[in-house]
Amino acid sequence: MAHINKEKCIPCGLCFNSFSEVFKQWADGKAEVVNDGKLNEEQQKIYDEVKPMCPASAIE
Ligand code: SF4
């Protein structure tokens, strides 16, 4: 399931600033996946594209 490793997230903002259909900023300032990580096909595609862009490898 789509998941952010909170321990690793810096949080630089790349994912939730540019791809808000899949990522959001949580109250702790770090990234979260929308809909508790349950993504539709289109969202999963975006997730997979953004994953290698995370500078902290926090998108798992
Ligand atoms: S791109 Fe990575 S480090 Fe930056 S906010 Fe998203 S999960 Fe956190």
Structure in words:
- The longest helix has 10 residues, at 41-50.
- By secondary structure, the chain is α+β, with helices and mostly antiparallel strands.
- The protein has helices at residues 14-18, 41-50; strands at 23-25, 31-33.
- The protein has a single domain (1-60), classed as Alpha-Beta Plaits.
- It has a two-stranded antiparallel sheet.
- Iron/sulfur cluster binds at residues 4, 9-15, 31, 54-56, 58-59.
Question: Topology of this structure?
Answer:
Layout: H1 14-18, E1 23-25, E2 31-33, H2 41-50
Antiparallel strand pairs: 1-2
This protein binds iron/sulfur cluster (SF4).
Q: Which molecules are bound in this entry? A: iron/sulfur cluster
Alpha carbon gyration radius: 10 Å
Q: Low-confidence stretches at least 5 residues in length (pLDDT < 50)?
A: none
Q: Count the DSSP helices.
A: 2
The CATH architecture is 2-Layer Sandwich
The count of β-strands is 2
Mean pLDDT: 97
- Name the structural class: alpha+beta
- The first-to-last residue Cα distance is 8 Å
Q: Hey, roughly how much beta strand do the residues contain? A: 5-15%
Strand order of the largest sheet: 1-2
- Biggest sheet features: 2 strands, antiparallel
Shape: globular
- Counted up, domains total 1
What is the CATH C level class, in words? Alpha Beta
CATH topology (level 3) name: Alpha-Beta Plaits
Q: How much helix, percentage-wise, in residues?
A: 25-40%
Query: N-to-C SSE series?
Result: HEEH
